Amino acid sequence: MGAMDKLKNKLQMGKGRTKQDVGRATGNRSMEAEGQGDRVAGGTKQAGEQVKDAGKNIKDAFKNP
């Protein structure tokens, strides 16, 4: 399920970037802020997935000498 979560996070970041750009272009500050929030949330989730992967890799390294 990790790959699916990573894809969802990337899509959320892309959606946020689009919202932010549209908000900036139209002068809609609330849409711009919402887009930035979506980008940050997606990036944070993505970082969490990377930490989980790193932990799993470390665990596997000690498991298989």
Amino-to-carboxy terminus distance: 27 Å
Task: Give the tally of structural domains.
Answer: 1
Name the helix and strand elements from N-terminus to C-terminus, one letter apiece. HH
DSSP E strands, number:
0
Please identify the structural class as seen in this structure: mainly alpha
Kindly estimate the percentage of residues that lie in beta strands according to DSSP: under 5%
Radius of gyration: 16 Å
Describe this structure in words.
- The protein has about 60 residues and is an all-alpha fold.
- The chain has one domain (about 1-65).
- It is about 90% helix and about 0% strand.
- The chain contains 2 helices and no strands.
- Helix 1 (about 1-25) packs antiparallel against helix 2.
- The longest helix has about 35 residues, at about 30-65.
- The radius of gyration is 16 Å and the shape is rod-shaped.
List keywords for this structure.
92% helix; mainly alpha; 65 residues; single chain; 0% strand
Please give the structural blueprint.
Layout: H1 2-26, H2 29-63
Task: Give a quick summary of the entry.
By secondary structure, the protein is mainly alpha-helical.
